[in-house]
Amino acid sequence: MEGKQTTNIEVKKKNRNRVFRYICKHGTVSNPDISYDMKMSLPTVTQITKELIEKGFSAAVYTQITDVEEEVNGLVTYDRKVIKVDEPKIKAINQKICNSLNK
Questions:
Q1: What is the pLDDT of residue 60?
Q2: Digit-coded pLDDT (tens) for 1-26
Q3: How many Cα neighbours within 13 Å face the side chain of 18?
Q4: By CB count within 10 A, which of 5, 18, 43, 88 is most buried?
Q5: Cα 78 off chain centre by
Q6: What value, to the nearest 5°, has the Cα angle with vertex 10 and ends 8 and 16?
Q7: Residue 66, SS3?
Q8: Which residues are 83's β-sheet partners?
Q9: Between the CA of residue 81 and those of 38, 66, 77, 84, 85, what are the distances in Å?
Q10: How many CB atoms are closer than 10 A to CB 19?
Q11: Angle at alpha carbon of residue 51, lines to 47 and 55, rounded to 5°
Q12: Per DSSP, what are the bridge partners of residue 71?
C-alpha cells in the first residue's frame, strides 16, 4: 500500500508554519539561530522570513516597559504597581497572530 506523497508546496507550507511558530515562541531571533535550531538551511529560513514579512508579519521591540520619571508611555507605572494595558486582550491578539498560519 502506497502512502500519500508529500508535495513540494506542502513541504514549503509546513516549513513556513514551523518557522512562524518558532518565532512566536522565541520572540526576537536571527535567521542563523532559526536555521541552526531547526536544522534548516539558512537560505531556506531567509526565504521564509522574507515571505512572512511580505505577508505583513512584523515584530517590534518595546524596550521601555515602565514609565520613567516624566515619561508616561510605559506599559506599567514607574513603581510597577499598575499595569496600564489590557493583558488578556494583548495575549489574545498575540495568540491570534501566532495561529494565523494554521488555517
A1: 59
A2: 456 788 999 999 999 999 988 988 88
A3: 14
A4: 18
A5: 28
A6: 105
A7: strand
A8: 76
A9: 39, 10, 6, 10, 12
A10: 24
A11: 170
A12: 68
In the block, residue with C-alpha cell 511580505: 54
The C-alpha cell of 92 is what?
489574545
- Give per-residue pLDDT as tens, 20-52: 889 888 877 888 999 999 999 999 999 998 888
Residue 16: which of 103, 93, 97, 101 has the closest Cα?
A: 101
Residues in the chain: 103
CA distance 36 to 16: 15
For position 95, what pLDDT does the model report?
Answer: 78
Tell me the Cα Rg of the chain: 18
- pLDDT tens per residue, range 49-83: 888 888 877 765 555 778 788 888 788 888 989 98
